[in-house]
UniProtKB/TrEMBL annotation:
Keywords: ATP-binding, Nucleotide-binding. The keyword ATP-binding applies. GO terms for molecular function: ATP binding. Belongs to the AAA ATPase family. This is Uncharacterized protein. It comes from Ranatra chinensis. InterPro entries: AAA_ATPase_domain (IPR050168), AAA_lid_3 (IPR041569), ATPase_AAA_core (IPR003959), ATPase_AAA_CS (IPR003960), P-loop_NTPase (IPR027417). Residues 59-82 form the AAA ATPase AAA+ lid domain. PROSITE patterns: AAA. Residues 4-35 form the ATPase AAA-type core domain. The lineage of its organism: Eukaryota, Metazoa, Ecdysozoa, Arthropoda, Hexapoda.
Length: 108
């Protein structure tokens, strides 16, 4: 049998609710804190996510980045997915900043 090394990496946005059994010695030996993206990083994430979306000219991604403090990249992606759903179900052609702010409040 070949001797191989296996690395297990886990991630959570809520470490405070992890079962203490997971944190016993020998299970996950290192905990690495990765902070939420800052405003500039959120802006870059939003630009990447929306690069193929038909956004209205009035959409202010910088303002959205400012208002989504503590959102992870996954949270921002989910926000944009929800906007797409709203557009599909309401048959709108573009996305506005107001629609995004409404969703931020719904997600939080």
């Amino acid at each position: 049998m070949q001797n191989t090394t296996v690395f297990v990496i886990a991630a959570t946005n809520r470490p405070n609710v992890l079962d203490s059994a997971l944190l016993r010695p020998g299970r996950f030996d290192r905990l690495i804190f990765v902070p939420a993206p800052d405003m500039k990083e959120r802006l870059n994430i939003l630009k990447a996510i929306t690069s193929g979306m038909p956004l209205a000219h009035c959409v202010d991604l910088r303002l959205l980045a400012e208002r989504t403090e503590l959102f992870s990249g996954a949270d921002l992606k989910n926000l944009c997915r929800e906007v797409i759903s709203l557009i599909i179900f309401r048959v709108k052609n573009c996305t506005s900043t107001v629609q995004l702010f409404v969703l931020i409040n719904v997600i939080n």
